Hints:
Elements: E1 3-7, H1 11-23, E2 27-31, H2 34-44, E3 48-51, H3 60-68, E4 78-82, H4 87-95, E5 100-103, H5 108-133, E6 138-139, E7 142-145, E8 150-153, E9 156-158, H6 162-172, E10 179-180, H7 181-189, H8 198-212, E11 219-222, E12 226-229, E13 232-233
Parallel strand pairs: 1-2, 1-3, 3-4, 4-5
Antiparallel strand pairs: 6-13, 7-8, 8-9, 10-12, 11-12
Amino acid sequence: MKKILIIEDDQHIRELLAYNLEREKFEVITAENGKVGLDLIYEKKPHLIILDLMIPELNGVEVCQKVKTDPLVKNIPLIIVSAKGQESDVIYGLGIGADDYITKPFSTKELVARIYARLRNREQKETLDKIEANTEKIKTPVDINYDTYQVKIYGNLLSLTLTEFKLFCALTKVPKKVLTRDNLLNLLNNNETIYVIDRNIDVHILSIRKKLGQHRNLIRTVRGIGYKYEAEIL
Length: 234
């Protein structure tokens, strides 16, 4: 279960949020002031924080700044929920590091939707960070030149499009690990020159496999999830 920490001094709002999030199968932790909330962030390591700005002992601005400047917890998504709804307030809240900002009174359904969106973004970012950081040597007939955007297999050049090259590289950097279609889409769409929609991922993978010829099984389909690269790690 994903853990959500609610830091809110209004008991009615705190209980209403907790009730609705528990219905969504989240594990909910609550705090009525900033000091307790900050302690719980380090103790419980929640997957997401909902933070009111106007809370006692340690206000929401201070909590947000402390969280977003600490490498231990700065990657936890943080949504500010506040009665301060002027455009300048929203800009300020996002400027101090909040991942999202929603004003009171708010729709619980909208807040839940934003929570899911922020959790998805965090999962995708973590996956892509692992891809970029992966430096394992791969035992494979495939040779990739990242400077010239060329792929060779047993010395034979594969004629890949730029999109196919990026897809293939993403898979080869995390051998035997499954990448979902969302992972692959997020990676591709970080490049402003490429925009790919979901149904096209399968088409691009099919094209890559055709070009791999007898080595097409290097890319495996994980039904209903995505794809993985089958290669032995040295």
